[in-house]
TrEMBL record:
Single GO term (MF): FMN binding
Residues in Flavodoxin-like domain copies: 5-159
Gene3D superfamilies per the UniProt record, alphabetical: 3.40.50.360
Pfam families xrefs: Flavodoxin_4
Stretches assigned to coiled coil: none
Protein name, UniProt field: Flavodoxin
Protein source organism: Bifidobacterium myosotis
Length: 159
């Protein structure tokens, strides 16, 4: 492919992390975790609790949880951005990451993990957080997706 590729991901429970690690191996990419300054606990991600941190962030779309440290995307041509689907969209900390970088000349491909939902995996709802990027529609990936399937998917993207 000849392009420098980064897999950047946010994972609250480890599911997205496992997929991101397999993706990075499958396409020989660097990998970085999107780490919130305040880590999410199990109680924070309890979607059944309207007062949990994730529920409050979902209700308040302007919220941008701080990052523990920035991720330098400068050396990369393509960045795969992975996240769990929360209410059919990316957690707000993913927007913090997107909005903190200069995406001019960069390509973003999203991938999402979810037990059931597929809406939101293509990343369209995130375009306004990185309008200078060239966006390639992403997809939902199963928690147990194999490296060979990931390599085939990426090869079909014609990046």
């Amino acid at each position: 492919m000849g392009k420098r590729i980064l897999v950047a991901y946010f994972s609250a429970t480890g599911t997205t992390q496992a997929v991101a690690e397999r993706l990075a191996r499958a396409i020989d990419a660097d990998i970085k975790e999107i780490v919130p300054a305040e880590p999410y606990t199990a109680a924070d991600v309890d979607w059944r609790d309207p007062n949990s941190r994730s529920s409050v962030e979902h209700k308040h779309r302007e919220m941008r949880p701080a990052l523990a440290e920035p991720i330098d995307i400068t050396p990369y041509d393509v960045v795969f951005v992975g996240y769990p689907l929360w209410w059919e969209t990316a957690p707000r900390v993913v927007r913090t990451f997107l909005e903190s970088e200069d995406w001019s000349g960069k390509t973003i491909v999203t991938f999402a993990t979810s037990g059931s939902s597929i809406r939101g995996a293509d990343g369209v709802q995130l375009h306004d957080s990185a309008p200078a990027a060239h966006w390639v529609a992403g997809r939902r990936l199963a928690a147990n997706v194999k490296e060979s399937e990931l390599a085939k998917w990426v090869a079909g993207l014609h990046l």
